Amino acid sequence: MSLRFEHETLGQRIRFASGGAAHAVGEEVTRLGASRVMVIAAPAETALAKQITGGLPVVLVHDEVAMHVPVPVAERARAAAAEYDVDAIVSVGGGSTTGLAKAIALTAGVPIVAVPTTYAGSEATNVWGLTEGARKTTGVDPRVLPRAVVYDAALTLSLPVDLSVASGLNALAHCVDSMWAPRTDPIDAALAAEGIRALASGLPQVVHDPEGLPGREAALYGSYLSAVAFASAGSGLHHKICHVLGGMYGLPHAPTHAVVLPYVLALNGPAAPAAADRIARAFGSDTAIEGLQALRRRLDAPRALRDYGLHEAQIPAAVEAILPVVPDTNPAAVTTNDLQRLLHDAWEGADPR
Ligand code: NAD
User: pTM value?
Assistant: First the structure.
């Protein structure tokens, strides 16, 4: 078979700088020529943000951050950015914080320097998301891609172990889904395989030694790779399922991804043997599902959607909403019964089959 594909590489500067975020962010802001910086950080991350933004020309600190970027929250942040005439945004926090910075960049074109403190990966994608009521809209726009990303593992030491595990498995899901997502290509698969390797090595270290930097660094590195692969490959079956569950029932983002992943892998793996083999090798295991499940056991990973607010009676409506958005390119044919079984198993935390 000939090798024919098209791949777009997104342009941004990436810095890994454990313990050195203040210096690195300062240089990136200078590089942008910015003199009126808006800092965005949720109240829980304000102290972290202060540590690294003290030397910047900050004109505004904004701390109203909410999961999935509700439109009124975005509107208030946009109005504040306009009122203070900001010329750069420094966002310090998880995917919700990066998401708010993107909402401003989408309409105002202000460049972002992102400092992620979870493994969500939003900082490495050109995807924005906004929520109006229970409806989540996403889109792609080059303006929302942060111009620079500063990864400082020291800033993630405060992320509790359970959140680290859920967030890390969210990143792992970007990797696994990228193996068969609609626009996947050999570059995405290579990035995703290295992402799996890094996360499978880093996350157990985070659990074993939450205060240690090497595991946190490996997890950040893996989450960056996962997001680059995901941004290029697009949403596969796993992301479609989680998007519906999050949007319809408000399930928490990272734990939902962590629970659903093995069920999607069990469904798609046998229909995508080359991808499954690649995933297995990245885990260093005989099969993909064994690799994932062994890692999940070591991490004491989230197991059942019922623990995160899904009710059994909500499954049929979720199945109905997911079926029309299953990608045509999904390796396994997916029926109503498959989805019903998958969601029921994920709801009760049954063994994936
Ligand atoms: P989040 O940003 O809501 O953070 C989860 C929790 O962790 C929050 O309570 C936050 O205060 C806390 N936290 C963050 N960093 C911390 C730290 N270092 N120490 C202690 N606590 C910390 O959740 P998330 O999982 O990071 O991101 C999820 C959101 O990101 C969702 O809305 C999702 O849709 C979005 N997302 C978007 C993309 C994209 O490409 N646009 C990609 C991935 C995720």
Answer: 0.97
pLDDT digits (tens, 9 = 90+) for 274-316: 999 999 999 999 999 999 999 999 999 999 999 999 999 999 9
Spatial distance between the Cα atoms of 57 and 246, rounded to a whole number of angstroms: 37
* 20-47: pLDDT as tens digits: 999 999 999 999 999 999 999 999 999 9
Q: Map residue 66 onto helix, strand or coil.
A: coil
Rounded to 10 deg, the angle between the 186-208 and 213-233 helix axes is 150
Write the CB contacts of 50 (distance below 8 Å, at least 6 apart in sequence): none
Q: What is the DSSP string of 82-94?
A: HHTT-SEEEEEES
Return the residue whose CA atom lies nearest to atom 4 of ligand 1: 94
127 lines ligand 1 (CB under 6 A): yes
Q: What's the CA gap between 295 and 33, in Å, rounded?
A: 44
Residue with CA nearest ligand 1 atom 40: 122
